Amino acid sequence: xxxxxxxxxxxxxxxxxxxxxxxxxxxxxxxxxxxxxxxxxxxxxxxxxxxxxxxxxxxxxxxxxxxxxxxxxxxxxxxxxxxxxxxxxxxxxxxxxxxxxxxxxxxxxxxxxxxxxxxxxxxxxxxxxxxxxxxxxxxxxxxxxxxxxxxxxxxxxxxxxxxxxxxxxxxxxxxxxxxxxxxxxxxxxxxxxxxxxxxxxxxxxxxxxxxxxxxxxxxxxxxxxxxxxxxxxxxxxxxxxxxxxxxxxxxxxxxxxxxx
Length: 260
Prior knowledge:
By secondary structure, the chain is α+β, with helices and mostly antiparallel strands. It is about 30% helix and about 20% strand. The protein is built from four helices and eight strands. β1 and β2 form a beta hairpin.
């Protein structure tokens, strides 16, 4: 009996070793495949960053640029990636994401991993089926960091604006430039405050008056005069980040879609 029990224990021990070995082997394969996929993903990210010299297609003639093709490849890895934004000559050169929860990409990168700098993300209320009037894109500006929208603070200097008037935004349907029409400082207002410009609520204009009020308010609040403006029917883009000039301060850059 003792010998039989010892034999069973040996077999059980061998079986467990085999199981653990198989599990370990499977885990290693998964890790390797994951690293390969991430490596390919990172190569696409780097490739997008190096494509700033490629032609821009500001017309709706269905010409697909190389940036648009590469963006589609990125979207296979993470369908939350809806575009790519770049301001030439600045640190702003990143994918833009959108999900049903605005808070998620405040603390996660484009791989959905935790990051204190988060990602650039489009407001969840933007409806691509309309499409909505204003692409409202948020990004962090963490003290001591040069990532995400930290570079937007440079627009407080009018000379910087004069050398960086355009924002390039690429989606899988178009690769276009937006021309800046206003730069202003603001803050998050209390609900009790009346007659204030809550630019961060403007996604889709209900009518021409609402659109014109947004453009007028943006230009009135602008830190300096900008000749370029927008007309009802134009597609707008607003970049928003934190500013430390006041409690809950914000800096916003408003631009209109360019046409050729």
